[in-house]
Amino acid sequence: MSTQTATSKETNAQTRPPKPKAGFFSHFKLSIKTAPYYFLLPAILVFGAFMVYPVISSLILSFQTFDMGEYSFVALDNYKTLMGDPIFWQALGNTCIYLIIQVPAMVVLSLTFATLLDQKFLKGRTLFRMSLFLPSITALVAYALIFKLLFNTEYGMINYMLSMFGVDKIDWLNTAWGARFTIIAGITWRWTGYNMIIMIAGLQAIPLELYESADIDGAGAWKKFWYITVPMMKSIILFVSITSTIGTLQMFDESFILTNGGPDNATITVGHYLYNSGFRYFKFGYAAAISYVLVLVIGILSFLQFKFTNGGED
Questions:
Q1: How many CB atoms lie within 10 A of CB 314?
Q2: What is the pLDDT of residues 56-71, one digit of tens each?
Q3: In whole angstroms, what separates CA 260 from the centre of its chain?
Q4: For 171, phi and psi rounded to 5 degrees?
Q5: Short name of one Pfam family for this protein (predicted)?
Q6: Distance between CA 281 and CA 97 in Å, rounded?
Q7: Read out DSSP for 145-184?
Q8: What domains lie within the chain, and their CATH numbers?
Q9: Distance between CA atoms of 222 and 157, rounded to whole angstroms?
């Protein structure tokens, strides 16, 4: 009997299919601890490929020069050249002019429009909000064409309206400050509505009890705005200020399309000069150096804004 059993076991062992070898993916077992990492892996890979790698690659490129189809290491030469480049300093100066004038004006306008369009008694609020928001999604070519027509010297609407008050024609796009004003007006028109929507979201988060208490105390509209709305909106105002600062420092479209940096580099921005260096003169290492100096400037200004406003807190 035992002999038959042993024989049966040997027969079953011979007929049983061999156990498959462990594959590569069998080592990655899904569990409560490992599952989050597996789900995050695709996003991490995409982030690394399209964010981390370009940042590191461009940083290395900023220490190189491209000549005769080959890259050669030049250490800090690109940065040294940049510090003595008059066009770079002019571009940085122009960008700072836009920043100093346009960002405060846009923040004030955004908060003002948001406050007005958040009033319950106002009819057609949605239509007004949409009208102010639409410029931010307008096609760049259409937006540039509109402002070129508005500020045209001979038949532009702006000069026509000024002529009604006896003002002579102004050559907006061919004079330094005229072209700068055109760009500032264009940026403000394009992004005020976008920032207004963010401001409205912040206003709607303010507890109504604060305004009701102020009404009981006899506070007027101005006091409620200054002592309730502005303090409660401090973090939103900081956010809009920082994002607007970053956007203005990176500005390229308006300088490139409206004025092409002219007249005589009077409107060229750092972003426009970076583009010219890299894609017009093929100085890729120099363009990379410009980008990292710009990142440094953005970081410093954002830190100062955050520091001086105490992080948007009281």
A1: 7
A2: 998 999 898 877 677 8
A3: 21
A4: -85, 80
A5: BPD_transp_1
A6: 26
A7: HHHHHHT-TTT-HHHHHHHTTTPPP--GGGSHHHHHHHHH
A8: 79-312 (1.10.3720.10)
A9: 35
